Amino acid sequence: MEIVVLTMKASVIEMFLVLLVTGIHSNKETTKKVKRPKFTVPQINCDVKAGKIINPEFVVKCPAGCQDPRYHVYGTDIYASYSSVCGAAVHSGVLDNSGGKILVRKVAGQSGYKGSYSNGVQSLSLPRWRESFIVSEAKPQKGVTYPSALTYSSSKSPAAKAGETTKAYQKPSVPGTTAQPVTLIRVLRTTTAEATHTTTLSKPSPSAGSSTSSPRPQPMGQRSQELELWSTTVYTSSPSSAGTNPGFVPKEELSTQSSEPVSQGDPSCKIDLSFLIDGSASIGKRRFRIQKQFLADVAQALHIGPAGPLMGVVQYGDNPATHFNLKTHVSSQDLKTAIEKITQRGGLSNVGRAISFVTKNFFSKVNGNRGGAPNVAVVIVDGWPTDKVEEASRLARESGINIFFITIESAVENEKQYVIEPNFANKAVCRTNGFYSLNVQSWFSLHKTVQPLVKRVCDTERLACSKTCFNSADIGFVIDGSSSVGTSNFRTVLQFVANLSKEFEISDTDTRIGAVQYTYEQRLEFGFDDYNTKPDILNAIKRVGYWSGGTSTGAAINYALEQLFKKSKPNKRKLMILITDGRSYDDVRIPAMVAHHKGVITYAIGVAWAAQDELEVIATHPAKDHSFFVDEFDNLYKSVPKIIQNICTEFNSQPRN
């Protein structure tokens, strides 16, 4: 009996051991089944910018070839989020041109970014930007899970090119915790001016942000910025967002005309006005709204109408785009409605590119330019441009455009190192006397500029950059210094040249003066580029010495074409004023024909023994308007008013632009 009981106990123990071993094995299998999948590193292309990716920290794989200068990088060590992620990785030395994995971490925006050359990549300088990032080797922090798919700020994300999927953003999670979607909010410090301006600038409700969000730290010296929400969808300045033509905006922004009777406008302020507004990302949404309100206030104050001022708007960022031209809206109310519908484009602050765009495209007849009205362009700049403006502005002024600059919150001392073109506003405007430039300390003071600006743009008598017969020419004097003239009469001729020159507005962007003296030979007394003020020109004329010799007028015309007018600016009217006291020893017909063919308007002034038939050959057709004869040198001064009148009559009969 005891033997049977012992046998049963052994069987029970054996069964228990079998079950125990089976359970352990089963548990191992279960453990294997719940093992986490291997982390997949998302791949991006070289042109993907950090600002397009919402995730604050992520690991990505870059392809080869990102050292290419096409992929722009802004900054050194800390990069603006407008930079190529992979380009920055190469610049920082974390990657070489063969590509690889990197860890990217977003940090606060900086007040400026310094460009440098490193590892085969030339990074660029940039003013303040809303967000930055740093790049390091792909060594993930222990206990942090990084996203296998990135979240982009646009529905048309570059992830599609690399075969990625896009999902709602979640913070990197720690094992054992549940990742919750979060709302990103940027809380930036406010200025005293903002705090005192609450009657016109309402702040977003505190409920707009997540209760778990915290203020984003700002670097020392960061520019004052407004409270502004970040959404997971950001407007981008891609060609698709502006139609097939990047220079124009969607048609729905143009369809705002009312059916009310149209005001004829203020006839005392008949100007064709273009506003170039700042749509760059650095300006922020709230400042952009302030800018639109400023435009609406100006439109109201100007009394827009077909018999008065007309106004169009161009917005710039990376590239400029016309929102509406001069003839789209012909009343202040229509303009205000259209302005309200303008949306921000984002991107950089390429002011020079915008000015070039306006010069080439905006002030044309098809866009409503009226020809007889002064052309005015008002450029609004937040901080400073990301490209150079001097050359573009010079060409605009020489095309007859009066450029006004409104600079808001200019660079302070510790930010000036980031400014690409120091004193850019003074280099851009026609005169540096303060008339054409307005510096506003804060965006919240911009409304105070409405009346001063309106007063200036309507003061057509002071719009010195408008094309007139006095400021739009290269004038070359060709002076007979032959023996028959004599020293005393030669001084009278020089006084005649000075009297004519005094009538013109002289500068490097207005009328320029040059002079050639001839006998059998020729010499250049001074060229168009030698003097650019009226006193300097008059002193140069006084210093011309009498040469004495024969009279080879034909050769002198050829010489003037080569040495003077070959260096004339393309958009300048070319005027040759030739003074002689006798018949030429050489043929003048062919040289005169060449001058006419090259567009040089020639005035022939004869004295005493000059041959009138030869003067008519030299002069531009009709000869009666371009050739003059006086019987003695002392009467030369009498012809000055008639010559000036004919120059202006001819100019005014031509299209203005």
From TrEMBL:
Residues 40-133 form the LCCL domain. It comes from the Eukaryota. The gene is VIT. Residues 147-182, 194-266 are annotated as: Disordered. Residues 148-157, 230-244, 255-266 have a biased composition (Polar residues). This is Vitrin. It comes from Equus asinus. Transmembrane segments: none annotated. Residues 194-215 have a biased composition (Low complexity). Promotes matrix assembly and cell adhesiveness. Plays a role in spinal cord formation by regulating the proliferation and differentiation of neural stem cells. SMART domains: LCCL, VWA.
